[in-house]
Amino acid sequence: MKTTLRPLVAALAAAAAFLALPAHAQGAQEPIQPIAPAVVKNPAMVELGKKLWFDPRLSKSGFISCNSCHNLSMGGSDNLKTSIGHNWQEGPINSPTVLNSSMNVAQFWDGRAGNLKEQAGGPIANPGEMAFTHELAVDMLNSIPGYQAEFKKVFSKQKIDIDQVTDAIAAFEETLVTPNSRFDKWLKGDANAITKTELEGYKLFRDSGCVACHNGAAVGGNSFQRMGLVEAYKTSNPAEGRAAVTGKDADRFNFKVPTLRNVELTYPYFHDGAADTLGQAVDTMGRVQLGKNFTKDENAKIVAFLKTLTGDQPQIGMPVLPPSSDATPRPTPFDKKK
Question: What pTM did the predictor assign?
Answer without folding.
Answer: 0.91
